[in-house]
Design brief:
The chain is of the alpha+beta class. It has three helices and four strands. A hairpin with a 7-residue loop joins β2 and β3.
């Protein structure tokens, strides 16, 4: 079975005891964490975290119900995060090649 190109997972955005920063975790993708100085920064960074983590899975994890995740985390912002895996991975490879090329200067 082929993994989908576009995925959506619930994410927990939590700024508790974090000096104003937001930590982003994904209940369905263990050990995947991102962050942002603001909620907007954290939401912008979240798709990259998913795109880096999911290729390690032969079969992508099934997303949890966002309402259940919100109920379990009443003091945090819970939101769905979507990412086009094919496009994001292509983007990230270009960025890596470009950065590596620049550093050989």
């Amino acid at each position: 079975m082929k993994n989908p190109d576009y995925v959506i997972y619930p994410a927990i955005f939590d700024d508790t005891n974090n000096d104003g920063y937001y930590t982003v975790t994904f209940p369905d993708i263990p050990d995947t964490v991102s962050q942002g100085q603001t909620l907007t920064d954290a939401m912008e960074a979240a798709p990259d975290a998913i795109a880096v983590a999911l290729p390690d899975y032969a079969i992508y994890p099934k997303p949890s119900d966002v309402k259940k995740i919100q109920a379990q985390n009443p003091n945090a912002v819970v939101s769905l995060v979507g990412v086009n895996m094919k496009e994001k991975l292509k983007q990230m490879r270009k960025r890596t090649v470009h950065q590596n090329g620049d550093s050989q200067g």
